[in-house]
Q: What sequence folds into this?
């Protein structure tokens, strides 16, 4: 018997999160295997480069794009914006989900990052924000 799913609306709305992104009723850290893969890829991007953030996005066909934050003297971009740019420049026209791995500093995800995902994503597309240990601290909906 399937467990009932909990949804996390982004705003004061009664809309629900698509089933493929719902968290389990008994264990709020449970994500689907494709969303877990996004977290793993985002963690790897961050660890490989030593960057402040790592991110991964999944497009509407299931392809994934990963990135680390860029912190150059003349160019600064969050990992999520770089991943969205990589998806867009590869021809992606939709995004299904995104994940960001960063230190848990208590600050919400930058609205510009959410806007970048929203540009390609439909309503209720989740952006999972996790610690380097892959503990999901929040899920932002586009």
A:
């Amino acid at each position: 018997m399937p467990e009932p799913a909990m949804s996390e609306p982004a705003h004061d709305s009664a809309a629900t999160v698509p089933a493929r992104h719902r968290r389990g009723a008994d264990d709020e850290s449970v994500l689907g295997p494709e969303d877990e893969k996004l977290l793993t890829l985002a963690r790897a991007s961050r660890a490989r480069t030593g960057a402040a953030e790592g991110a991964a996005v999944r497009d509407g066909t299931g392809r994934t794009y990963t990135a680390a934050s860029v912190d150059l003297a003349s160019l600064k971009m969050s990992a999520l914006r770089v991943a969205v740019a990589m998806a867009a420049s590869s021809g992606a026209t939709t995004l299904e989900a995104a994940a960001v791995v960063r230190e848990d500093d208590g600050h919400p995800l930058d609205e510009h990052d959410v806007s970048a995902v929203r540009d390609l994503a439909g309503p209720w597309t989740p952006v999972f924000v996790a610690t380097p240990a892959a503990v999901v601290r929040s899920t932002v909906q586009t």
User: Anything to note?
Assistant: Residues 1-28 have pLDDT under 50 and may be disordered. Residues 34-141 form a domain with the Cytidine Deaminase; domain 2 fold (CATH 3.40.140.10). The two ends are 31 Å apart (CA to CA).
